[in-house]
Design brief:
Layout lengths: L33 H23 L1 H8 L3 H19 L12 H12 L10 H17 L11 H10 L1 H15 L4 H18 L17 H5 L14 H7 L4 E4 L1 H21 L6 E2 L20 E2 L1 E3 L11 E5 L5 H15 L5 E5 L12 H12 L4 E5 L16 E5 L1 H15 L3 E4 L13 H4 L1 H8 L1 E7 H8 L11 H4 L8 E6 L12 H8 L10 E6 L23 E3 L2
Parallel strand pairs: 1-12, 5-6, 5-10, 6-9, 10-11
Antiparallel strand pairs: 2-3, 4-13, 7-8, 11-12
The structure holds 6-O-phosphono-beta-D-fructofuranose.
Amino acid sequence: MPAYDWPIDTENLPVMRIVTPRNVVMCGIFGKSFAYYSLRERMPVILTKVIDYLSREGNKIKTKHGATDEDVRSLIQYINKLKNDLITNKKYDPLTVDTPEARNWNKWIEETDSQCYFLNTWVFTECYVYRRLREGCELTNGLQNFDPFDEQKERSFQNSLEPMCVVAEKLTTMLQNGDKDKRKADFVTLLKICLWANKCDLSLSMGEQVSLKSDVLNNDANKTTTPCMGTIDPFQMILDLKDKVLVDESSKIYDRVIAKAEVMAKAISAEPEVQSVSSEKGSPTASPPVEEETKEGEELPKIPCPSKMTTPDAVMFDIVCDNAGYELFSDLCLAHFLIAQEIVQKVRFHVKKIPWFVSDVTPNDFKYVIESCRTADYKKEMALEIQPEAPEGEAPENARSVLNADTLRQLGEAWTKFLEDGTFVVMCDDFWTSPHVYKDMKKYDPNLYRKLQFAVAVLFKGDLNYRKLLGERNCNPTLGFEAALQGFMPAPLIALRTVKADLICGLPKGKFEQLNKFDEKWMEKGDYGVIQFCPKSEALKPSDRPCAEYGAECRGVVCAQH
Ligand SMILES: O=P(O)(O)OC[C@H]1O[C@](O)(CO)[C@@H](O)[C@@H]1O
């Protein structure tokens, strides 16, 4: 197992000097685990940085949000107490804002076996801290919409313009029609671009900016394939980091996504068109909770009732997003490819409703990234590396070229249109910012589970999603991905994750031990990645629950649009 070199405070905390035992859920009481280190060292730093930001930029923040000195002061005080409660392992405070979502949180807190920061599961405590940070803002008058991480996320986007321009240029060639083999190769390449983009997470780095430049890129003096000296080239990165992808199921993912998308497209075209039905009183669809009064006999547009439908209205691919900035940009590129190649008709992006794990995408970040691509300004003159075979002194004709943001801006334009016409859909269900692991989604949010069932496949990005997929359980590293999911199978699932926490599944026998020997901290740095796939999914049947929108009134296959 990895050697841990942080101090373990057994005097003041209920902590044991052990790693997380096998098949046990991760928790702060295991002193030699990343859970303990995160709660004891990382999270307090993240909170301190928010306090520093409020103190340093108080005036700017006040002006932007129309907030007062008192708002800033009370938020700082709130975060200070939160930080102190965390490091001294206090009992959780209930949330005091009065919303249905906050009341749910209080119920979940009540239901947990242990309500102390280090004694409850790591994922619960960590999510609770971010939820409390949000409450600190909600309790002020003027900082209700304040995102404590906005500045860091924006800086991270601006620092990644160079690799975005490089990817944008190449993406345009991938969007055109090509032969089948090229299409598959391009899909696999884009998956890997998305994988390594997950390195750009500001939570692991505790808010410090992360450079995409890998050690391999920086150190390898022998490589000959880098097209541009000093340029961050994500395509080169894929080649350089080939051996760091511990499980790579990308080829299988492509084959299954294509096959499933084709089946779904056929099923959709075989569905009868939904007709408008008159809204006469007494008909099965007569009394949905429509907000506007409808006149008797008036035709209402009809939609298929989501709880009765077993075929979606479009072929859809879902992405459960992780980080904003360059990582979201890479997700958008994959989504654009799926649309342009007519593999799917819609891509749904699931994002976080509130600021989360420092750099996770919120609806505002989504808008920011697309708008910033649309208006990006970047120019860099590059000297191409002279290949050894070129005669001395003779530089190839194209020895200098200019990288600019022209193509990036075009992509920003296209994505804006996709958002407007519903090709791209942004969704932010509360469940993503709850403390629950995914095997429990059906219990806590059956509606979201059902929504996911309509997808051709659901792509989960990043480390936190991976932890939740595995139920936060430190399973045997050789356990298969499907078994590790513990029954969570709304649709075929893809996980793209750079390893930033000490749990993993699906490794070949002996690999885990070999990696530990090589680098004791390999699970904490995001240097390794996995591309995993579970093709199985639960069949979509008419729901046995009433539709979420119509409640008990839902009785038909077709409902009046509300
Ligand atoms: O952005 P990601 O990939 O979900 O990573 C989030 C970070 O948060 C954690 O999940 C917990 O702090 C880490 O394991 C990881 O460093």
